[in-house]
Design brief:
The chain contains six helices and eleven strands. It has helices at 9-12, 34-43, 62-67, 83-91, 101-113, 176-182; strands at residues 21-24, 48-51, 71-76, 95-98, 117-120, 134-137, 140-146, 150-161, 166-167, 183-194, 213-216. Strands 1, 2, 3, 4, 8, 9, 10 and 11 form an eight-stranded mixed β-sheet that branches. Strands 5-7-6 form a three-stranded antiparallel β-sheet. α5 crosses α6. The chain is globular. Pfam families: CoA_trans. It comes from Pedobacter cryoconitis. Belongs to the 3-oxoacid CoA-transferase subunit A family.
Length: 233
C-alpha cells in the first residue's frame, strides 16, 4: 500500500506555483485547511484562483491570502464576512465569480466523477445565466455548468491514514469530500494520522485513491466565525 505521508504543510504544497487554480475545503471557518493556507502565505505564491465556499475572514482562512494579495480570482458562494474581500472587489482588484451553493458543490462532484458538465435550474433567468447555454428538459429550463478544473484540492479531515483514507467530523465534512475527489492533486491535512487498517472501513468518507499527499497538523485554532449563544439567566 502506498505511503502518502509528507512531513508538513510546506512539503505538501511544494509544487504549487503562481497562477494555479486551487480548491480549498471548509464552510465558513469550519473544516478549513489552516496549515496549508499558512504555508501558502509563507511561500508567497501569487495570482491564484481559489475555489471555496467562502473567503474566510480578514485575519483567518483565505482572508490571509487576500490580505497579502496572493489571490487573483475567488470562485465562491458566500463572501459576506470579509471586509478586505469587499474592498478588493469594489476597487476592481479582485475577480469574483459568485455561484449558487448547490451548483458549487455539484460542479466539484462532477469533476470527481469525470463528468464534463451538469445541468441545473439554479440561476435560470438571473445574472448567473448570462452567456451560458440553457436547455429545456420536460418543459423546464436548465443552465449548463462546466465541471471545475483545479490543479490542487486542499482539504482538512479529522483522521486519516498514511494511505490517504479520510474521516471527517460532524460539520467539518461540508465541502471537503467533494473537493477531495475533484483536484488533479489532492492534499489532506489531518488532526490524527494513523497506519492503514486502524480506521473502520465503514467510517471512511473519502477513499485514499483520491488523496495524493497527507500530513498531520497540530495546534489547530478551529475559530468560530459567528458565535451565537443564549443569554444567561
Amino acid at each position: 500500500m502506498i505511503n502518502k505521508r509528507v512531513a508538513d504543510a510546506d512539503e505538501a504544497i511544494r509544487d504549487i506555483i503562481d497562477g494555479q487554480t486551487i480548491m480549498l475545503g471548509g464552510f465558513g471557518l469550519c473544516g478549513i485547511p489552516e496549515k496549508c493556507i499558512a504555508a501558502l502565505v509563507k511561500k508567497g505564491v501569487k495570482e491564484l484562483t481559489c475555489i471555496s465556499n467562502n473567503a474566510g475572514v480578514d485575519d483567518f482562512g483565505i482572508g490571509l491570502l487576500l490580505k497579502t494579495r496572493q489571490v487573483k480570482k475567488m470562485v465562491s458562494s458566500y463572501v459576506g464576512e470579509n471586509a478586505e474581500f469587499e474592498r478588493q472587489l469594489l476597487s476592481g482588484e479582485l475577480e469574483v465569480e459568485l455561484i449558487p451553493q448547490g451548483t458549487l458543490a455539484t460542479r466539484c462532484m462532477a469533476a470527481g466523477y469525470g463528468m464534463p458538465v451538469i445541468y441545473t435550474p439554479a440561476g435560470v433567468g438571473t445574472e448567473v445565466a448570462e452567456g451560458k447555454e440553457t436547455r429545456n428538459f420536460n418543459g423546464k429550463d436548465y443552465l449548463m455548468e462546466y465541471a471545475f478544473e483545479a490543479d490542487f484540492a486542499i482539504v482538512k479531515a479529522w483522521k486519516g491514514d498514511t494511505a490517504g483514507n479520510l474521516v471527517f467530523r460532524s460539520t467539518s465534512r461540508n465541502f471537503n469530500p467533494v473537493m477531495a475527489m475533484a483536484g488533479k492533486i489532492t492534499i489532506a491535512e489531518v488532526e490524527e494520522l494513523v497506519e492503514p487498517g486502524e480506521l473502520d472501513p465503514d467510517h471512511i468518507h473519502t477513499p485514499g485513491v483520491y488523496v495524493h499527499r497527507i500530513f498531520q497538523g497540530s495546534a489547530y485554532e478551529k475559530r468560530i466565525e459567528q458565535r451565537t449563544v443564549r443569554p444567561r439567566n
